[in-house]
Here is the input.
Amino acid sequence: MGLTLKSVLKAIVLLTVIFTFVFPIYYMIILSISSPTHIPTGAIYPDFFFGKWYEATSGEWARCITNSLIICSLSVIFNILVTYPAGYVFSRYTFMADRHLFFWFLTNRMAPPAALIVPYLIIWRSLGIWDTYQGTILAYSVFNIPLSVWLFTSFMKNIPKELDEQAFIDGFSLLMYWRKIFIPASLPSIGIVSFFIWLFSWSEMFMSTILTSFNSKPINNLLFITLGRMGSGVEYGLAAAVGVITILPGLILLYWARTFLAKGFTFGRV
Amino acid sequence: MNKHVLLVLPSVLIVLFIGIVPTICLINYSVQNPFTDMNAFLGFENFRKVLFDYRVAGALSRNLNFSAAALLIEIPLGVALAKLLYEKSKINTIASIVITIPVLIPPITVGLLWRLLIYESGPFTKFIKMFGIYYNPFRDPSQAFWTAVLVDVWHWTPLVVLVISAALAGMDRSPVLSAKTEGATGWQIFRFIELPAISFPLAFITLLRLIDTLKVYDEPTVMFAGGPGLTTEFLSLYVKKVGIDQWLIGYASALSLIYNFIVLFLCLILVNVLTKGRGLL
Amino acid sequence: MSEPKKVGRRTFLNYAIAVVATGVIVGAATYFAVPKGVTTVTAPGTTVTKTVTTTVTGTPTTSPTTSPTTTPTDPYKAAAYQCADWVGEDTVLTRSQLIEELEFFAEASKPYRGKEVLVMYESIVPAEWEVTYLGPWFEKITGIKIRWESMSNWETVQKSIQDQKTKAGLYDVIGSDQDMTGFYSYYDSSLDIDDFMEKHPDLVPPHFDKDDFYVRASYSDFKTGHMRALLAYNVPHGTAYRADWFKNPQYQQEFKSQFGYELKTPMEYYLDAQKTGDVEDDWTTDKALDVMKFFTRKDQNMYGFCTALKPGDHMGWWVGDGWDDVFQLASPAPKGKNPLDCTYLEPVTTPWGCHIENNVVYGFSTENGGTLDSEAGQELYTYWLNKASKYVPDKCWQFGVDEAYSTVFAIDANCAMFFPFYCSAGFLWNDPTKSNIAGKFEWGPIPVYAKNYEKGKPRGYIDPSGWVISNYTKNKEIAWLFCTFMTSKAFDLKKSMDNGTPIRMSSLMHPKFAAQDKKLGGLVTLFKNQIKEQFGSDARMVFYPIVLPVAADKGAEALQQGLPGDKIAKYVAKAMDDTLKETGWYKKSLL
Here is the structure.
C-alpha cells in the first residue's frame, strides 16, 4: 500500500478523532493517581499519589463494585431467559395486535426514570423486594426487556422459517430444536443482546438511588459521595479511580462480544 | 404450533407489572395532591398547571434542541467513523476497542471528568483558548448547552460506531464489488448500496439515541446542575426537582405523564419516517 | 422468506383474554394489597469490617493501657473493658464511671443480641471516624450488627423525606440534616426522646446526662420542648482567614496607614466590641470590605476574599445557613436567653428571614412581615454578589461552595478570607496532602452588618447533625442503644480531639480539648466565646424542603440574568412567598 494523499488524509483524520476520544480517558487515568493538591492545577501529568486507588478498592467501594457486577450479570441472564422466547414468537408468528404489542414493549423504554420512582418505591417496599438484587433487576427490566425483545426479534427474522418446519416434521420438540439448531444459529444475537443489557444496566443511576440502600447499592450510587464531601470538597481523584476500575469488566465483555458483532448486525432490510 | 405464542407470556407479564402498574399509580397521583395535608380530587388542575408552566416550556424546548443537536452530530459522525475503521487492520482493531471505552465509564465519573476539563485551569479550556475564544461555560448558557452536547457525543458516539460497523461487517459485499467495477464513486456506493443495507440497524440506533437524549439526566446534571441559572435545566431534572426535592407528587406525576407522552409521540413519528410506515416488526 | 404461520383467530382471542386478565389481576392485586409494616428483607450481608482508610485524618490519640484487676468472662463485658482501655485518659468520665457506662451497654443489649440496626449517615469526616472506631466497639460490646449506609448530604435529605412521606420505615436511624428538624417533629416521624426516656428508664445509660448536650434547642419540638434527636456533630459558622497575612507586622503597618485603624484578627475585633459594647468596634461587614480591598493585589496573585459565585444550588442553602445571620435578618432572642438555647425566634426567624408569629406562617417578603427583601436583605445580595465579588479570583465564578473553599482557599491559597463557613471543614486543612494552608489559617466569628445589628440576634449558623430515630421502625430500642452509644460522654472528648466537633459541654470545657486550640486554628476559642450566639434552623420551619429548591433556583436564575443584588432579593422573596401560597402554607397554623 503506497502513501497516497488519500491514505495520509485518512490517517490524520483517524488520529485526530481517536485523540479526541482517548484524551479524556488518559486524563482520567492521570487523575486517579494525582493527589488532591495536584488536581486543581490542571496539569496533565500525575504526581503518583496512590491513596485514591487504595480507597477505591477497599471497604464500601469494593463492596459496591461487586454489587454492580452481580446486578449487571444477573440482569443479563434474567433478561435473556425471559426475552429469548418472546423474540422467537415475534419473529415467527403473526397474531392479532402483534405489532401493537411490540410497540407497546418499546414504549416502556421511553418512560423517564423520574416518573417511575415514587410508585416503584412504594410497591417494591410493600412487596419486600426493596434493596435486594432481585428488586433492582426487576426494575431495570423496564428498559432492558423492550430492547432485548427488539434485538432478538430482528436477528431471529434472519433465520429462515424452513429450518423450524423441517425440524418439526423430523419430530423435534421445541426444546430440542432450540438446543440443537436454533440457539447455535442465533448465538451472535445473544452476544450482542448481552452486551447491550450489560451496558444499560451499568449506566443506570437514577432508579438505583431509590431502590437500593445498604445491601444492593451499585457503584453509581456510592459515587454521589464524590460530588461534595464537606472538608474534602469534590473528590475527583476518587471518582477517576473508580472510573478506571469499572472500565475493566465492560472491556472484557466487549472483547468477547466483538466476535459476535463481527458476524454481523443485519436485521434484514427495511 | 399456536401454543408457542404463549412463550411471549413471561415478558408480557413482567412488563405489565413494572410498566402498567406504575402508570396507573401515576394517573392516580396526578389527579390529586397526595402525601400532603390538602389532599383532594383535583381533576385536570395539575395538567393545566403543567401546560402553563414556563419552566416546563423552557426545559422541553431545551430537550428538543439537545436531542436534535446530539443526533445530528452523533449519527453521521458514528457512521463516518465506522466506515473509516472498517478495513481489517491492527490499528483499526485497537482503535475500535479503545474508542468504545467512553461508553463504559459510569455517568458520574464522566460528568466529573468533563467538569475538570472545562474549568478555567482545565486542559479543554486551554485548548479552546488557543483559538482565541473566551470559554466560560459556567456563565454563558449557550456554551454550557453546547458543552453538554459535546459530552453526550463523546460518551455515546462509540455505541453508534459499534452498531454501524457490525452492520457493515455483516453486509453482503457483492453489490459493492460489482459497482466498483462499473466505476461508481465511493460516495455513490455509500449512498445507494451501503446505506439501504444498513438502514435497519441505523434506524435502531437512531431511535435508541433519540429516546435516551430525550431522557438525558446524568451527565449535564453532574456537570452543571441545571446550568448557569436554569439554562441547561432539562425536563428530567425539572421532574426530579419537583418530585423528589419538593415532593409535590401530584404535579410531578402529571408532568411525568405528559413527558412520557411527548417522548412516545416523537418516537412514533421517527419510527414511521425511518421505516416508511411499515412499523418495526 | 416464507410466510409466518397464521394462528387461528378464536384460539388467539382466548389466549389474549387470559393473558390480559391475568396481568390486570396480578397488577391490581400487588398495587392494592399493601401489607402494613413489612420489614426489610435483607439479602445475607457481610459483617461490616471497616478498614482504616485515608479519609480519616488527624492522628488518633493513643491511650495508655491500664489493665483491669479482674477480667470478666462474659465476652461482651470483656469487650467493654477493652474499649475502656482504648479510650484511656481521653474522656471526661473517671475510670470507674467509664466502666459503668460501657458495662451498661453490654447489659442492656442482652435481649437484642444478634439483631441488626440500619443506619444512614452522611459521609463526612466525624461520621467516618465513628464508623471506623465506634462502630466495631458497639458491635463487640452489644452484639448488635450495624448496617451503615453512607451517602452524600443531598441524598440524606431526600431519603429522609421519602422515608417520612411514604412511611415506609426504610431506616432505623437517620443521620439527619438539622434543617429538617421542624419537618420531622411536625409530622411526628422522629422519636420523642423525652417520652421514650420516661417509658424506658432501664434503657437510659447512667451517664447519659441530657443537659450536657449544649445544642438541644435546635432539635426540640417547638410545642413540647422535647428533644427529637440526639446530636451527633455540631459545626458552627465562622470566618476562615489567613493568620500569616493578618498577623504580618508589615501588612498591619500598611493597613493602618491606608485605612486609619488597626488590622486585627476577627476574634480580636469581636472581643474589643464585647468590652466597649459598640458594634462599630466589632468585626463588621464594612471592616471586612476594607480588608478585602487591602489584600487584593492581582499582580502578586493575592486576593481579599474567596466565595462561590457560580449561579448554582448554593444560592439557596448558603443564604439560608450563614449569610442571613451575617446580615442579622432574624429577630433577637427573648431577654435573658441566648439564641443557642432557643427553639424558635419570633416574629422573624431564620433561615431566610421568615415571618412566623403565634405559630402562623406568613412569609419571607416585607409585604408579609419577613425580612428577606428588607434593606438588610437587599444589602445581603448586593454585598455578596456585587461588592465582595470584586475581590475574588476569577476562578470563583465557576465554583460552588465545596470547590471554592477546597480548591481556591485551601489549595491555590491566594485569598485572605472566606466566610461564612463551617469551622470543622478546616480540620482537614491541617493535612498537607490535602491543602497548602496547613498551619496558616485560623477561625474567627462571622462579620455582622452594623446597621442591622442587635445583641441577641443570631450570629452564625450552628449545624448540628443529629441521629434521628425513625418513628416507623420496629427496632426503636436497638436504635436508641446505638444513638446513645455514639453520643456517649465516654467518647465525645476523644472524638472532639480528633475531629473538632464537640456535642457536649463537658467536652467543650475540658482542658484536653482546650489544649488543641492552636492545632484547630483557634476553634476552641471561638466555641468558648461566641458559641452561645449561634442559632440553628427554626424548629417551626416545617416547609423547608418545599422552599429550599425555590430559593436556590430563583437565586441562580436571577444571578444568571445579571440582576443587581436588591432586585435579586425581591425576586427570590416573592417567588418563595408564591410557593407558600400555592402549597397551602400561607397563613396556615402550625398547631
User: Anything to note?
Assistant: Chain A touches chain C through 56 residues (CB under 8 Å). The first strand of chain A starts at residue 93 and ends at 94. The mean pLDDT of chain A is 85. Chain A has one domain: 57-262.
